[in-house]
Amino acid sequence: MVSFARIIFKVNVVEDAIEIIRRIFTSSGKLFVDISTFIYGGLALIVLISKDFIDEYIPSKFNFLNNSNLFVRCMASVLLISFILMFGVLNGGQFIYFQF
Amino acid sequence: MKKLLVSTILIFVGLISVDIIVGRIFITLSNRVLENSPASLVADYAFKKLDSDIVIIGSSRGNHHYVSSLIEDSLNLSTYNVSRDGSFLFYQMCLIDKILDNYSPRKILWNLEPTCFSDLSKKTSDLERLLPLYGQSQLLDSLLHSESAMERVKLKSSMYRYNSLHFNYLYRSFIPISNKANNGYRPIPNEGYNFPSMLMSDRMEGSLNEEIIDLFNKVVDKCGRTGVDLFFCLSPHYSNYEYKDFESYKLLSHIAIEKDIKLIDFYHNISFMQDSTLFKDQDHMNDKGARIFTNEIIKYLQ
């Protein structure tokens, strides 16, 4: 449903949305698989599941952001900021509501 | 207070170090991709390595409609197609400007659209694709700086410039696509889909954009100054709306006459409009259509 809604969010005029939806049912072709999106999505899922797993089963370990050592705390922040800069959605073009 | 200061310095130094390392890794990867698979980093190739006699530039329609090897074989002049899917006038103007800084090709075939001067919304996405090449072209840098007040600061960071490109660079440095690409041309298969029906409705045109027109004129003038034989081309489009009434088209024709540039218009050429099997969809011809069209173009280049 989200993918379908994106058709309407991304187009310039309603006619384009109707044309796209029409072609979904009338044009044949290969499955559209954007492998890099899958990999970035997989990476984000691994981070999410790891965080949940650590919080649930070993909450006292891997506590980098609240570590007693100042250097470890700072480097954890550096890694987080770097991760956001490298993989985050930073520009309007990538943003789902960009057309608005 | 002392702890806060030390933390700030540590984070700042850490970020700069990571940024430098990331930047160096990407430069190494990009050089490796350019060696193995130039067609997969076409903007980098145009900026750094291109030296062909004939250069073809456009968006996806340019990429899929001009068979570079056919032109090369017919005219005995090296030919490369630096067109790219979803990359429009700002992207194309930056590439041409940089190519002219590097050398003067003998001919440039610029595939344009009848609405080319009216769409400002593509500026951000066009420039995003060129972020890794920041610092290598005055025109690109000035356009990027004009995007926002903070852009100059953000562009200092390699992590920002290469945002979300890691996988593409890594993948292409190990798995080249040079065999699939033919001097930049990417053919669309002739079968495996339903041929399109003709697009009957009118296409919308926004108001003319002065920034695009001004830049376009400057790039065209630069081609003239460097002695490049420039051609404006409109490749076939499977539709029947009145594109000649568009303000962009009128202006393009006017610029072509004023600056003595050949305008090769096949947009609704009758021999293409009669055969839907030459098209994958209304916007794009397949390899069969591209080869017929390229042979027509060659006649103008001789």
Question: Could you characterize what this model shows?
Answer:
The complex is a heterodimer of chains A (100) and B (302). Chain A has helices at residues 2-10, 14-26, 35-57, 70-87. The mean pLDDT of chain A is 82. The longest helix of chain A is centred in the middle third of the chain and has 23 residues, at 35-57. The radius of gyration of chain A is 20 Å and the shape is elongated. With 100 residues, chain A is an all-alpha fold. With 302 residues, chain B is an alpha/beta fold. Chain B has 14 helices and five strands. Chain B has helices spanning 2-36, 42-48, 60-65, 68-75, 89-102, 122-128, 138-145, 151-154, 158-161, 166-174, 210-225, 247-258, 270-273, 287-301; strands spanning 54-57, 79-81, 107-111, 229-234, 262-265. In chain B, strands 2-1-3-4-5 form a five-stranded parallel beta sheet, sandwiched between helices. Chain B is globular and about 75 Å long. The relative contact order of chain B is 0.16. The model of chain B has no long low-confidence stretch (mean pLDDT 91). The interface between A and B is medium-sized, with 31 and 31 residues.
Descriptors:
heterodimer, A: 100 residues, mainly alpha, 4 helices, elongated, B: alpha/beta, 5-stranded parallel sheet
What's the layout of helices and strands?
The complex is a heterodimer of chains A (100) and B (302).
Chain A: H1 2-10, H2 14-26, H3 35-57, H4 70-87
Chain B: H1 2-36, H2 42-48, E1 54-57, H3 60-65, H4 68-75, E2 79-81, H5 89-102, E3 107-111, H6 122-128, H7 138-145, H8 151-154, H9 158-161, H10 166-174, H11 210-225, E4 229-234, H12 247-258, E5 262-265, H13 270-273, H14 287-301
Parallel strand pairs in B: 1-2, 1-3, 3-4, 4-5
Helix pairs in contact in B: 1-10, 2-5, 4-14, 5-11
